[in-house]
Specification:
five-stranded mixed beta sheet, transport, 35 strands, 47% helix
């Protein structure tokens, strides 16, 4: 409400209450003055003063020199103090200074007379409160003489006040301000008590009186702000001084003096001087009241004037006041206030508010004559003189519902208040709040079913007890009417809103036993009726945009949204208000019990926990006993209130939304109640002692946990588990059975401590007993029982718990139990086997399956770590085969561990079911791939081994460091295994190359043959690649290119275009032509010519002999490839080069070169003969005699080799692969002889005839 006072300079709006006779405060009873006191007061010759000490539940009355303390709750009980004879002019009850008095003195009574001011110690024992509210005895008061006094020097102390740390300030009628300073003992230069003039100067003590300056205005009253360290002093001229007491509270510095309050108020509110003040030059101020820092961070003081106006002052600079609340410091600054200025004028309450608005203009506004006032937490009570015998207590309080409703429509709504008047007997001397518990400004947030604020009004007739009425009190009063009409209920709902009305109904229905007994069944039934008949139903509403801001907040601009019922919202609001006192508090805190010893303590008082829990249980009881609070959608289908055209499916959707939300609210209710039970249980078992067994890092983690976190977060639930475990461990250390603890936990907080928790802790106890067992059989039995319990709850175990329990089993030597528990936990935590799918998908990032996979891996790690500790005894196939093998992920983890131990051979020996899958799935490594084809060979699956080897040879995977030579080796192995696989298939054995259905023998043979041919082709290309690499390295300067050829297998196009052709690697180009079978005679001829001429032109070569050597070497690799080694083309080139180098040429050079290049004699003959025929016909430009002599030399060489090949010097075998077509040769020789004769070449003819005769002689 303070926010609305800051937003405007003045306000005067008061609301009409519903019903119209509702009062801000109602008079409950009048406690008359005891007759003896009344007689003393009525004596005209006496000087009498009155006041209230609400701290000790006493009213004080002074009659001349006598002081009476009246226990108004006991009516006739009063105490009289008359140990001195001076007239008492003022009295005050203040806090004592620490360390001065005994502990029994809780307060100090300051009594001022014209001669002296003295202190009395006050002991107060509140006593036991009876079962009926408000029937306490008022406590017992004891007065103690302190022997502390100071002379008054004839100055009447008109006002006395004290600070929280014991300083006592007094204002004298001489205009000076004094301090009553006291200490426990006299000092060397100081007395136990002294009076200090705080406003005089040193010079005033030495100047005569007639030289003194103008006398200061006397102070009428003073109030202290202990939080802000300020003292406010009201002077007779209506001005206010602000004194700063220093950051430590030990100083006295005048900070500000506001002398123009009336003028400033008139500027802020033009109505201020129009009939609401007396019009005189001096502003009449009835009282001053500190606004606590908890109520407002910016407003610090409210002043009530004689006309009933309230003036609000601030000590915060204007620039800071209008910041957002988050920007204003959460604690008052320890420095002198910057300003003291009037910021808001609140006009007097308008008592016409009780008159209907239509008639207010006919009734004049009543002026107030206020002589005493009270203000606290937004509530103002003004004592207005009604007549000589009666006062009217005018009450004003914020109209919370109206303010909240306006805030929705207009964020900067002005302050609106309810106002009413209550008449009391006599003239009012003081107003005070009694039994003052911390109260908020919003009365709607109250969860108590009875009025929470009571006030005592002291008059000369007695003490009137007033109770502040809240909206819930107003509703209860409305429900007590014998003939309650629906229209009245609807008016109330219209005024306060359906949600708030339903929340008030819950407040009434969930009242404590005393309140329920005091309320009639009529009220309870009427409240229940409002909930179920007027509570509304969930429905669709169209989103409405009010203004720019609202338009930006619409979440579903294109469609309606579901509006839940007021009954639902009322329940949520009531539950939130019940939990509010503890929701933000620390459930556990860390405190130092001894030096450097920190322990955990419950951070919330037990009484506060019990009070909240009692309200929660009453609410839970009401919900459990009113099942139709959750409407049955099948039997009670409500009518759509907004849009009757809604389909039944839409209506059902609304109810389903509300049902789900109500279920969540109920769960929060149960969890909160059980969290309180849990905290109380920890307190019963001595949490500080329990915390001694918790590690320091965990103790820090568990300290300062908010109650809200304990209830609503996973971290809070985990903290509960840790605290329970610490409690169990403490019990076990004390050799106490945990059954009783488990039963209490499961009964009082089952949502925190479930049946699974019971099983867990029983299992832990079995393990502890097993460790202590003297006989091995007993230990095994207990361990097995523990394993049975743990296996049944394996789904709820955390990985940390599995690890700790596994260590206990391992310590007992129960290694199989470690494996069984870990695998059970992994399996139960992932019933859909999502972890394996996640692993198979190569672990994508931000995948919801990742946490499941991580948990399973942690479970497996317990087994692996156990095996690692015992590696010497478990690294054998027999021991490993005993482990469960039905969990693929665990098997994979086991295989990884074996590989890390260098025990890959055990994978084959174990004959485990997932080895092949493990080696096949990602992430694949070269080691795993090598193991995979070795595994296939071990399993006689040579076809699959061949396929893996070929894939390795062709792999370009990063991380596979395979050089070209090893790739060729893989291809060679692939070809060998492929041939073995074909032989096995032909022998009747199956050796599948893929995970397909079984193939027929013919189909599988064909598939293997195809794979074999592909491997052979790859090998041929790889060999060319190797050739290129070797040439690059021999050339030098091409190391990068040479290394690049190790990274993968290139195809022929890449080898030719990227390496061979750019670098003019002629041999490699010819090999590529052969491998690709690329038939391009011109290209091939150009390559051959370039290659051979390069050799011929080499300065270090031997000419034609070097050419012959090159042809022989290439022929052995290229022949009989027509694409790379066309015999006519090569022969022609050799003839051409021989003719160019006749000086080096020897007859038979061409034929001998081709024969040594693995070309058969008959093929050379046919090629040369075709060349001769072409020359004779004029088709070729070649020397015919040259060709004929080459043919003759070829025939001689053939016959020599044939005779050598026969072995006995006889004729060579006809039909040999290198045999000549003898008849064709003979005919050709005959033709050559004829042509030589015609050309008169006798020498050639003779040579040819000798060759022919030799042939005929042999054949």
């Amino acid at each position: 409400m303070v926010k609305y006072r800051k937003q405007t300079s003045s306000s005067d709006e008061y609301e009409l209450a519903l019903p119209v006779d509702w009062q801000v405060v109602t008079k409950q009873r009048l406690i008359p003055l005891p007759d003896a006191l009344f007689e003393q007061y009525d004596l005209l010759e006496c000087r009498c003063f009155m006041g209230l000490f609400p701290e000790i539940k006493r009213a004080w009355i002074t009659v001349d020199h006598r002081l009476f303390l009246w226990n108004y709750e006991e009516e006739s009980d009063f105490y009289s103090f008359d140990d001195q004879e001076q007239i008492i002019v003022s009295v005050a009850l203040v806090k004592p200074k620490p360390g001065v008095f005994v502990d029994a003195i809780k307060h100090v009574l300051v009594v001022a007379t014209p001669l002296e001011v003295f202190l009395l110690g006050v002991g107060y024992d509140a006593g036991k409160v009876a079962g009926v509210r408000g029937s306490g005895s008022g406590g017992e008061v004891s007065l103690f003489a302190t022997q502390l006094s100071v002379p008054a020097d004839g100055v009447a102390m008109t006002s006395i006040c004290g600070t929280a740390d014991g300083r006592v300030f007094m204002s004298g009628n001489d205009g000076a301000l004094y301090e009553f300073a006291y200490q426990s003992e006299d000092g060397w230069l100081t007395k136990k008590a002294k009076k200090v003039n705080l406003t005089s100067t040193i010079a005033s003590y030495f100047l005569p009186t007639f030289f003194a300056a103008k006398r200061e205005q006397a102070a009428l009253s003073m109030v202290v702000d202990d939080v802000r360290r300020l003292l406010y002093v009201l002077l007779q001229d209506g001005s206010i001084k602000v004194v700063w007491l220093g950051a430590s509270g030990a100083e006295f510095l005048l900070a500000h003096h506001h002398r123009s309050i009336a003028t400033t108020a008139g500027l802020l509110c033009s109505q201020f001087n129009e009939g609401f003040s007396d019009g005189g030059p001096v502003l009449e101020i009835a009282s001053m009241h500190v606004i606590p820092f908890s109520e407002s961070r910016t407003l610090s003081l409210v002043v009530v004037t004689g006309s009933g106006c309230r003036l609000y002052f601030s000590t915060v600079a204007r620039s800071q006041r209008y910041y957002e609340a988050s920007a204003v410091p959460s604690q008052p600054a320890g420095r002198q206030p910057d300003v003291f200025e009037l910021v808001h004028v609140r006009m007097p309450p308008d008592l016409r508010a009780a008159i209907p608005r239509s008639m207010q203009c006919l009734a004049p506004r009543q002026a107030l004559n206020v002589h005493t006032a009270f203000y606290r937490n937004g509530t103002a009570l003004l004592a207005h003189t009604w007549n000589e015998d009666h006062d009217s207590i005018v009450g004003a309080a914020p109209a919370c519902a109206q303010i909240l409703a306006r805030t929705v429509r207009q964020p900067r709504a002005t302050l609106s208040e309810h106002a009413s008047s209550t008449r009391v007997e006599g003239r009012t001397w003081a107003i005070a709040e009694i039994d003052s518990a911390p109260a908020g400004l919003n009365d709607l947030a109250s969860v108590s079913s009875v009025p929470t604020r009571s006030f005592a009004v002291l008059t000369n007739a007695g003490v009137s007890i007033l109770e502040k009425q809240r909206p819930v009190d107003m509703l209860r009063a409305l429900l007590t009417r014998p003939a309650l009409q629906d229209v009245q209920v609807k008016e109330f709902i219209a005024a306060y809103g359906l949600n708030e009305t339903c929340a008030m109904c819950f407040t009434i229905l969930c009242a404590d036993d005393y309140s329920l007994h005091s309320m009639s069944m009529q009220v309870l039934n009427a409240a229940r009726r409002i909930l179920f008949e007027f509570g509304g139903v969930p429905h669709f509403v169209e989103p409405l945009a009010v203004g720019f801001a609202a338009a930006s907040d619409v979440s579903e601009a294109n469609g309606p949204r579901i509006q839940l019922s007021g009954r639902h919202h009322g329940l949520a609001m009531y539950l939130a208000r019940v939990l509010q006192p503890v929701w933000g508090l620390h459930a556990t805190v860390s405190k130092s019990d001894r030096v450097s010893v920190w322990r955990l303590h419950i951070g919330i008082s037990t009484s506060e926990l019990f009070e909240v829990q009692e309200r929660l249980r009453r609410l839970q009881h009401f919900l459990n006993n009113n099942q139709r609070f959750l409407p049955d959608q099948l039997n009670q289908m409500p009518v759509q209130p907004v849009d009757g055209s809604r389909a039944p499916a839409d209506i059902a959707k609304c109810w389903n939304e509300e049902t789900v939300s109500l279920g969540a609210i109920y769960e929060l209710l149960v969890r909160s109640s059980e969290a309180i039970s849990f905290l109380c249980l920890l307190g019963d078992f001595n949490l500080p002692v329990i915390s001694d067994s918790i590690a320091e890092d965990q103790r820090k983690e568990l300290s300062d946990i908010l109650f809200s976190q304990l209830v609503a977060t996973e971290a809070g639930r985990a903290a509960c588990k840790k605290l329970i475990l610490a409690l169990i461990n403490t019990q076990l250390k004390q050799h106490v059975s945990i059954d009783s603890v488990s039963d209490m936990l499961s009964k009082r907080c089952s949502s925190i401590f479930s049946d699974s928790d019971v099983a867990l802790y029983k299992a832990l106890e079995y393990l502890k007993l097993a460790a202590e067992a003297e006989e091995g059989a007993e230990a095994v039995t207990l361990a097995n029982e523990a394993l049975t319990l743990l296996t049944g709850i394996s789904a709820m175990l955390t990985t940390q718990q599995v690890r700790e329990i596994s260590e206990k089993f391992e310590a007992l030597g129960q290694y199989t139990a470690v494996a069984s528990l870990s695998l059970a936990c992994a399996s139960e935590s992932d019933p859909n086997n999502d972890a394996l799918a996640y692993w198979s998908d190569r672990a994508p990032e931000n995948d919801p399956r990742e946490p499941i996979y991580r948990k399973r891996v942690e479970c497996y790690r317990c087994i692996i770590e156990m095996l690692d500790k015992r590696r010497d005894s478990v690294l054998n196939s027999k021991s490993l085969a005993m482990l469960p093998n039905n969990d693929a992920l665990f098997q994979f983890a086991l295989y990884d561990w074996l590989l890390g131990q260098g025990q890959s051979s055990l994978l084959f020996q174990m004959r485990a079911p997932f080895v092949e899958k493990f080696l096949s799935l990602e992430p694949r490594t070269l080691e795993k791939c090598d193991m995979l084809w070795q595994f296939y060979i071990h399993e006689n699956q040579f076809g699959k081994a061949s396929l893996v080897q070929r894939e390795l040879a062709s792999s370009s995977r990063e991380g596979f460091d395979i050089d070209l030579a090893r790739r060729i080796e893989y291809l060679s192995l692939s070809i060998s295994n492929g041939k073995i696989a074909i032989d096995m298939v032909r022998g009747g054995q199956q050796t599948r190359v893929a995970t397909r259905e079984l193939l027929s023998e013919e189909e599988e043979t064909n598939e293997l043959a195809t794979m074999l041919r592909e491997s052979e082709d790859l090998l041929e290309i790889a060999q060319v690649q190797l050739e290129i690499q070797q040439q690059l390295r021999s050339l030098g300067g091409h190391d990068t290119l040479a290394s690049e050829l190790d990274h993968r297998l290139f195809n022929v196009t890449e080898l030719y275009g990227q390496f061979a052709e750019p670098l003019r690697l002629w041999d490699a180009m010819l090999l590529i032509l052969k491998a690709s079978n690329h038939d391009d005679p011109n290209l091939a001829k150009s390559i051959w010519l370039a290659n051979l001429r390069t050799v011929l032109d080499d300065s270090q070569s031997t000419g034609l002999m070097a050419v012959a050597s090159k042809v022989v070497r290439l022929g052995g690799r290229l022949y009989p490839s027509a694409a790379a080694f066309s015999l006519p083309m090569v022969a022609e080139i050799l003839v051409e080069l021989s003719l160019e180098r006749r000086e080096e040429y020897q007859v038979g050079y061409v034929g001998d070169t081709l024969v040594r290049a693995t070309v058969p004699h008959w093929a050379v003959f046919e090629t040369l003969n075709a060349m001769y025929v072409g020359t004779a016909a004029g088709g070729q430009d070649v020397d015919a005699e040259f060709v004929v002599r080459e043919i003759a030399a070829l025939a001689n060489a053939w016959m020599d080799s044939a005779q050598c090949g026969s072995g006995d010097g006889g004729s060579p075998l006809i039909g040999h692969e290198d045999s000549m077509p003898v008849m064709a040769m003979d005919e050709a020789l005959s033709q050559y002889i004829i042509n030589a004769t015609l050309n008169n070449n006798a020498e050639l003819r003779s040579e040819l005839q000798r060759v022919q005769e030799h042939i005929r002689r042999i054949f």
